Amino acid sequence: MALKNEKLTHLHFYYHNLLAGPNVTALPLNPKGPLDFNDPAGLFGRLTMVDNPLTLEPELNSTTVGRVQGLYGVASRTDVAFVELVNFVFTADGEYRESTVTVLGRNPILAAGIREMPVVGGTGVFGFARGKVHFKTYSFDTTTGNGVVECDIYVFHY
């Protein structure tokens, strides 16, 4: 297969990780007692499957452009750090519809500022994708685990 010139695309979205409430989008696969983000060792090993809405603005009722689908697990006994395998699945009409960007890496969710994870692949428009995603927590409820995360995706693709 001949490859065209590579281009860089920057995408900006918010995803909503909802562990509690009427429309749960994050389901713990092996609940290990109450959520206590002050006790990383107690959270260690917790796995969660997600199908989170991806929106243009931080409000859940803003325009939905896709889903963040995949799995994360607490992979550290000393801080709340996830290993994440997620696909950004684009569902809105337009050039990215039915394309995906795949992210795999470590995400220390309580860290201040911007967290970076690698883009390891993609499909559709983002075939042969590589790049990085910057995550920044927009809001987080330590009681419920519900959160909104701002995402900047920088992806090279053909």
From TrEMBL:
<protein>
    <recommendedName>
        <fullName>Dirigent protein</fullName>
    </recommendedName>
</protein>
<dbReference type="Pfam" id="PF03018">
    <property type="entry name" value="Dirigent"/>
</dbReference>
<dbReference type="InterPro" id="IPR004265">
    <property type="entry name" value="Dirigent"/>
</dbReference>
<dbReference type="GO" id="GO:0048046">
    <property type="term" value="C:apoplast"/>
</dbReference>
<comment type="function">
    <text>Dirigent proteins impart stereoselectivity on the phenoxy radical-coupling reaction, yielding optically active lignans from two molecules of coniferyl alcohol in the biosynthesis of lignans, flavonolignans, and alkaloids and thus plays a central role in plant secondary metabolism.</text>
</comment>
<comment type="subunit">
    <text>Homodimer.</text>
</comment>
<dbReference type="InterPro" id="IPR044859">
    <property type="entry name" value="Allene_oxi_cyc_Dirigent"/>
</dbReference>
<keyword id="KW-0964">Secreted</keyword>
<comment type="similarity">
    <text>Belongs to the plant dirigent protein family.</text>
</comment>
<dbReference type="GO" id="GO:0009699">
    <property type="term" value="P:phenylpropanoid biosynthetic process"/>
</dbReference>
<keyword id="KW-0052">Apoplast</keyword>
